[in-house]
Amino acid sequence: MHEAIQNIRQWGSAERHAEAGMKTGPDKNHSRSGDLSRQASAWLVQLEDAPEDDILRAEFMDWLATSPAHLAAWEETARVSDLIVLAGPSPQITSSLASGSARRTWFRNIRPASALASLATAACLAWIAVPYVALHFQSDAITGAGELRQVTLDDGSRVQLAPTTAIAFSNDAAGRRLKLLRGEAWFDVTHDEAHPFKVIAGDNTVTVLGTAFSVRKTDSGTDVAVQRGRVAVTASDGTRSDRVELVAGQSVSTDGTVVTRGTVRPDRVASWRDGITIVNDLPVGDVIDRIRPWYKGYIIARGPGLSNRHVSGIYDLRDPDLALKALARAHKVTVSHVSPWLRIVTVR
């Protein structure tokens, strides 16, 4: 494995030299293809070296979305079609990820011609699996893409998890505390004055005052909507905090200590439980964020309209491609079907 990585490192170095003196004439296209292959190989090395580097991942996705040629080079290098098959439950992959010795033996035995593709697959699996495995260790319940799950806690409270959601629950003398590690959940909490129920999502805390409500953890804060009863939401940025109380039909979005109030029909709270999302004057980027957990692959969104173009409507989450098609039909959105696992959404 070490030799294979060193070879790819050398190819990545050669790619930088090739850019400085690219060929012209009849072999130009061939040279360009080789350059992109070396770039893709260099990305594999970097992602393998830093599987938890979010900035690196974002830079990689930008590179991937720059040109169809980049996507083709990556797909060829990583053999993504094989990756999709291997990413499911497989004794071979489980063994290779779990055992360093087995992994080294596997790399020694593969044919030289398939070394790059095999290394690509392993690197991609590590990039995808490492954060996911870490989340598994932290959580008591977790869902995958497109999966809904209902959990009954030991206090009798019910929690319904949206796709790609993870939670951890504790119940002791200090009270009932549920950490929303990722994603979105709907709660129907059993009343117990002696043991307050709190939902912690990043720096925000939702204190239950007897209610049914939803909480969504976002990149910048938390969205809370109340279906029944009352909650108190405390938003904090580490130095100061603000507290607001919500009753049925009210919602709030937080970004640090910036709190934005809103209203919502109680029967539309957590509409994702019925496989739909109902949006009213939301940025296209936010709508795509709601569709993304239901898609069993990657959705890359780009373009100036992501934040400044607003939409309203009802979108079918159970069919992400249909939802994206509905966006594209009415809102100057282009959806490129790059492969069975990748969609690129461009918002003008």
From TrEMBL:
TM regions (residue ranges): 113-134
Domain FecR N-terminal: 38-79
Key word Secreted present: no
Domain of life: Bacteria
Family matches, as Gene3D superfamilies: 2.60.120.1440, 3.55.50.30
Basic and acidic residues: bias regions: 14-35
Chain intervals for the UniProt region annotation (Disordered): 1-35
Key words, A-Z: Membrane, Transmembrane, Transmembrane helix
PANTHER family associated with the record: PERIPLASMIC SIGNAL SENSOR AND SIGMA FACTOR ACTIVATOR FECR-RELATED, PROTEIN FECR
Protein name per the record: Iron dicitrate transporter FecR
Protein's gene: fecR
